[in-house]
Amino acid sequence: MKLLARMLLALLFVLPALAGAGELRGTGSLGLVIERAAGSVLIVDTMARRTIGRVEGLGDLSHASAVFSPDQRYAYVFGRDGGLTKVDLLTSSIAKRVVQAGNAIGGAISDDGTLIAVSNYEPGGVRVFAADTLESVADIAAIGSNGKSSKTVGLVDLPGRRFAFALYDAGEIWVANLSAPEAAPTIEKLTGVGKLPYDGNVTPDGRHYLAGLFGEDGVVHVDTWQTPLKAERILDRYGRGEEALPVYKMPHLEGWAAVGDRLLLPAVGRHELIAVDTRSFVESGRVATHGQPVFAVARPDGRQVWVNFAHPKNDTIDVVDVQSLKLVHRFTPGPAVLHMEFTPRGNEVWVSVRDADRVDIYDAATFAKKAEIPAQKPSGIFFTARATRIGQ
Amino acid sequence: MTMRSSQKRLRLWLDLAVVLVAAATPVMAGEVAPDAARLANLVRQDCGSCHGLTLRGGLGKPLTSENLTAWNSDQLASIILDGVPGTPMPPWRALLSEGEARWIADRLQQGNLP
Fold this sequence. Notes:
The structure holds two protein chains of two kinds. Chain A is mostly beta strands. Chain A has a domain at 100-247: 7 Propeller (Methylamine Dehydrogenase, Chain H). Chain A is built from one helix and 31 strands. In chain A, the strands form eight sheets. Chain A has a four-stranded antiparallel sheet, with no helix packed on it. A four-stranded antiparallel sheet of chain A has the order 4-5-6-7, with no helix packed on it. Chain A starts with a helix and ends in a 9-residue tail after the last strand. By secondary structure, chain B is an all-alpha fold. Chain B has one domain (2-110): Cytochrome c-like domain (Cytochrome Bc1 Complex, Chain D, domain 2), CATH 1.10.760. In chain B, helix 3 (73-82) packs across helix 4 (98-110). The interface between A and B is medium-sized, with 30 and 22 residues.
């Protein structure tokens, strides 16, 4: 009798778990919010505008980012401490985790979804892992033509199991080709591209790689359809010889994925965005902003760009109309706005407000706040629709 | 109950530690004592965007005490205030007083940032 009662009790505890496991759902409306100080991520539902899970134990997540598996079930989270964590969005759990380096900055997933590449500061270089097991596949030491190991930045995927990245210390851009599954990667190196490339990104078609320079005024453009590859300087001397303003946080080139003929880049040391014609890659205008831009994120239709700023002006967002290059809206969500992510069709935008421990959700057309989600020191926000985009 | 009172005691100790650290910091005549909590948050969150939230480095050098032995307190304070030309380290003079820069330099070197 006692045994039966105990068994019934045990069954009672197991039932909700069984029910949960049996519930079918898709992942297209899901996403991740990085809680940078707590080393955790929130799993969020963008349609329900709420948190559906929290995963802890991901290490140091300052400057963390994520990419998604093609089936949009798993997120690969790149932590500052070199941790690479595969998070299962359906079960809110860690599927796999490795600490692959001492200090990392970001990563990318190959077009076929089988390879995860991680960009490292310490030791420099790029390491590549199998997406399913996180076992090491390749280790690309970033020894520049100066003979020194370099931090790597701006790592993105290119079509054909390739990855592009920049060597921060050496001033180079490399394209690694991993299309032959068992062979070592072949690497095409562009040397002497400019001083201190701080970040890079590729256009949504996977063709044009751009790296921003910190050590000089300019951006490096590589048309990856050309053979051999060639690095060309664009926006040269955009500072016009004026003294640069202090940059209290490095701008990021992630999120610019604008459709259409224009993309807006944050200037370095200038409180403005520079518009670039995506056919000729020459400057097509500028717009003054509230502060040093950090992210200039295009709404998925490409019509407006939302901009946040470096310390101490990081409580504000500017919304810029891409066609007219006019400011259409400026508002202050709260202290330390770190990141913005649009829902896949761009109807809403999620904004992390770090020092308010909050994520705000805005209507992207009316700018009205739709909801708030509590989060501990939130930074990056990443939605699963990124799985379908080149370079994200 | 015990839990709550021990937490309260811990918080009291932390507050006391902050006060002691602040009190132990040499403050130049006529300057207001630095706001320890605000500065510590600035160092972790904003310096941390380049130097890492745990200050173990990133694009910028690590700021842990064992990595700061090559500089004296004056040199570190001047790096904070005036930046390092040719690198992304910006001058913080517009945002921090000399006393605050000195306070940050000392806390980092002693490894006792509250």
